[in-house]
Amino acid sequence: QDADILQWDSAIYFVEEEEGVMNVDVIRMGLMKETISVDYATEDASAKAGERYEAVSGTLTFEPGCVVKTVAIPLIDNDRWDTTLEFKIRLTNPQNCELGRYLYLSRVKVIDGDYFPSSTYAKEFDRYGVTDTAFQEAGISGLQLLWEYITLNLSSPGIKLKSAGVLLIDFLQNLYFLLTTYIVQYAADNVLGDAKPEELLIPGSKDQTLLFLAAAYLLPFVVLNVLDVWKAQQRIAEESRGNLQRSIFRKFLNFDEISRASVSSSELGLSIIQDADDIVSSGFMNVFELLKQLGKLLVSLYFIQAENPEALLPTIAVAVAIALFILLNYETSSQMREEVSERQARIIDVAQEGSAKIGLIGDYKVRPLMEERLTHRISDLNEASVPLSTTQVTNDYFPSWLSNLLVAGYLAYGGEAVIDGSIQIGTFLATVNIFKGISDTFKDIFTASLELSKATGPIVKITALLNKQTNLRAQKRINRRRRQVTKQERTPERLAELRRATGQRYGTDGIPIRLEGVGFAYPGAQTSIADATLSVGQGSLVAVCGPRRGGKSTLIKLLGQVVDPTQGEIFIPSYLRILHVGANPVVLDGSIWRNLTIGSINFWRDPEAETQRAMRICERLGFNSRFMTLLRDTRQQFLDGEDGEEHAWARTLSISDQMLVHLARALVYNPEILVMNRPTSQLPEAIADEVFFMLREFVDNRGIALPPESAAKRRPRTAFISFARMAGVLNSDVVWV
């Protein structure tokens, strides 16, 4: 009971990569009379040691009276763009002390300051902004952005090495094409022609020479087959696409409110599913195909120059004609594809709205109106799709026409050359084979070049998306300030003073929560809160009251760190975890256990006991027998890590049931600071009364369904609640109006 407690001073830390080092603190709570120690170590998460930070580990020893120790974690700064990645820091092996219930584990977010896909155009981005129209004003094309993305993707060590292997295999395939052409030429001109037997590869034997040529033709093909199987197993496209999709989603999760409001769910979905795939498949991976075909063209031109130079000029003329056609049609094709993509997104918008608001649509009898909207948008899509399809047919046939004309012309010209004896039959046949190969190569180069246009629109869109504003720097500033003030409040002298003044066992529990000159105004709106200066001790149930539209919800958001003050500051000790619970219930896809344990499961050390506690909370909240049976029946499956994505249980939930899941999740999480907006507004009175009683217990017992005898070792629980019923206000310790 008298053992001191060691834990990190924050549940999460923020650092920018260019800072070079992140200093994190381990704080001590207790009487501080003994020498104690603890081990610490970093752990990889999305950020990897050696790439984003340097792994550190060691032991911290606290002498009597020592309240804090600092761990320095070196960061690795580079010019490569990445989303905000994070790693973990963990405390283990406490000696002569205990670890905090939750903050033995914490996370460090590393904020990347580079532009996506690179900082090559940083000056232009700074001047014009990062939007579709800004790129046009700055003279930055989709192809330029695509090139920067390709460079970025190749900077990934795994992708770079595998890509080099693919290019080598493609080069060997082109050499094989040249080899087989020479084999055919040699067989026709020498073995089957007039060459003397002693001049053959195997002197004196045409049969053995033919067998040797057959082996030389076949064996490299076997090797290339094996290499192609290896190439297909490298998962370059899958890894590249997955990296980009994760980056889009991570970035979205860190958007500020303005950025988040500017991106619809359909746009986000299309960006992750379709745009990311187009950028990788039609952009990055397509470059390999383009380089392969260009290599094949070069070896073909080499053969023509060496064996039949008269045919070189028309071949180059066809190549120039195709290049000009690509230049003239590239931008048009790209714009057509982007228009089709935008109209597809509009159809998804209607479908999502219909799914999400089916109740309202049915109540107001507007199903025909929604169907009409969808029909109009389908018509718009069809109008954009037909010209694109027509253009694609023209694009497909143009290189084929030129290539076939080239082959037909050479058949007439080259045939006469064979007749008059100026070239040998083998050279003629090999050149026809080369021209046929060039015909296919021209078409493939043309197709691959136009295929790039499928990636230019998406890369412009994704570049704008991945450079939108986040709230990370604001969170870093607030987090650093909270940690700084907390450190000032936790000097040995101040902690002793707080113990005497508050009677708390731990002086740190006596540090008050303060609002100092807090003001807030939404962009373009009048001030919602002005110069709020308030203070309350930890371990209080605070009711937030006021007239309608009087700023209650805004104050709740400020306390819950959903929005940041536009003036003044809110001080809550940095080691206290804050949870904001909105007024509208949210039920996640997946099992009921996933819904109840999200967030809290990361800190569990005894899953068996924690799941039992979660079930007791649900039972007290009044979950019906069907849900309690479901919890019992699926608990072991959840503990075994076999919890599925089943969410049929949630389809028939009433609003009240959804609210109970919403509240149970918060009480299972057990934050030190619980901030709730109208938690009982959608509950019947009997259940609302039980919620009031449980909130009272949450504060008094420092958590729900936890042993009362260990309450003194837990941090005080403080609740800020905007009540919809007077009974909740009367149940409170403090009322803020």
UniProtKB/TrEMBL annotation:
<feature type="domain" description="ABC transporter">
    <location>
        <begin position="513"/>
        <end position="737"/>
    </location>
</feature>
<dbReference type="InterPro" id="IPR003644">
    <property type="entry name" value="Calx_beta"/>
</dbReference>
<dbReference type="InterPro" id="IPR036640">
    <property type="entry name" value="ABC1_TM_sf"/>
</dbReference>
<dbReference type="GO" id="GO:0015421">
    <property type="term" value="F:ABC-type oligopeptide transporter activity"/>
</dbReference>
<protein>
    <recommendedName>
        <fullName>ABC transmembrane type-1 domain-containing protein</fullName>
    </recommendedName>
</protein>
<dbReference type="InterPro" id="IPR039421">
    <property type="entry name" value="Type_1_exporter"/>
</dbReference>
<dbReference type="Pfam" id="PF00664">
    <property type="entry name" value="ABC_membrane"/>
</dbReference>
<dbReference type="InterPro" id="IPR003439">
    <property type="entry name" value="ABC_transporter-like_ATP-bd"/>
</dbReference>
<keyword id="KW-0677">Repeat</keyword>
<keyword id="KW-0472">Membrane</keyword>
<keyword id="KW-0812">Transmembrane</keyword>
<feature type="transmembrane region" description="Helical">
    <location>
        <begin position="166"/>
        <end position="188"/>
    </location>
</feature>
<feature type="domain" description="ABC transmembrane type-1">
    <location>
        <begin position="171"/>
        <end position="454"/>
    </location>
</feature>
<dbReference type="GO" id="GO:0016020">
    <property type="term" value="C:membrane"/>
</dbReference>
<dbReference type="GO" id="GO:0016887">
    <property type="term" value="F:ATP hydrolysis activity"/>
</dbReference>
<dbReference type="InterPro" id="IPR038081">
    <property type="entry name" value="CalX-like_sf"/>
</dbReference>
<dbReference type="Pfam" id="PF03160">
    <property type="entry name" value="Calx-beta"/>
</dbReference>
<dbReference type="InterPro" id="IPR011527">
    <property type="entry name" value="ABC1_TM_dom"/>
</dbReference>
<dbReference type="InterPro" id="IPR027417">
    <property type="entry name" value="P-loop_NTPase"/>
</dbReference>
<feature type="transmembrane region" description="Helical">
    <location>
        <begin position="311"/>
        <end position="330"/>
    </location>
</feature>
<dbReference type="GO" id="GO:0005524">
    <property type="term" value="F:ATP binding"/>
</dbReference>
<keyword id="KW-0732">Signal</keyword>
<dbReference type="Pfam" id="PF00005">
    <property type="entry name" value="ABC_tran"/>
</dbReference>
<keyword id="KW-1133">Transmembrane helix</keyword>
<keyword id="KW-0106">Calcium</keyword>
<feature type="transmembrane region" description="Helical">
    <location>
        <begin position="208"/>
        <end position="227"/>
    </location>
</feature>
<dbReference type="GO" id="GO:0007154">
    <property type="term" value="P:cell communication"/>
</dbReference>
